[in-house]
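Hi R.,

Here's the chain you asked about this morning:
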Amino acid sequence: MTYPSISHMPWLTTAQMIEVDRAMIEDFGIELLQMMENAGRALARVARERFLAGDPRAKHVAVLAGPGGNGGGALTCARRLAGWGAQVAVFLAAPAEAFAPVPAKQLDILRRIGVPVQDAAAVRSSTPAELVIDGVIGYSLTGAPRGPAGELIEWANTQRAPILALDVPSGIDTTTGTVHRPAIRATATLTLALPKEGLRAPEAAQHVGELYLADISVPPELYARMNPPVAVGPLFAHDDVVQVSCPA
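And the predicted structure, written out as tokens:
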């Protein structure tokens, strides 16, 4: 899962990533549900290959999900892992009625197929997990995580199980790399589309762990239209998940 020119790829700020998401939907007609499915599939793949010895069957996985797109990707991952035989338990950082429409759809699907979904408080009495998936807060972070989101992050950091974060470890600013308290200390992070500037900040490095990058089907033409333009080559020509870096 490596690409020869990976060290030369662009890194995006939060504002640039917001523009990528806008352009995907408004300019190219690629819906959020499609992007979420791509993200969740890639996250499940990294979970299976890197942390579950290639076989998720009967492995206990705790999925922590917030109400936004990051949580929706984690919920999609939960569905796939459950379909592959994992014992998945989902814990929500907000009430179900607070979920945005597309993540709410993913949550509804999980409930329909019988995956256990509980609120954040239930995580403290849950079965010990062999892997924790962090989908609490993505690049929409504003200040330190609070309430149930903060409680889930603090719980995850006390576990012996490895933590796989989606896009960014919850509690890290994706532009500055500022580490809020609390913040996930991930074993690995699967970021999406292009790496985020904040993930290579020295302060954030110990929270990011191994850094992987997933293809969510952003057309190279989209990056070329940005102001200023961003030149992106065929990063995913060999694989739709590539490894960007390992911990020092």
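Confidence is low (pLDDT under 50) at residues 1-5.

Let me know if you need anything else.
M.
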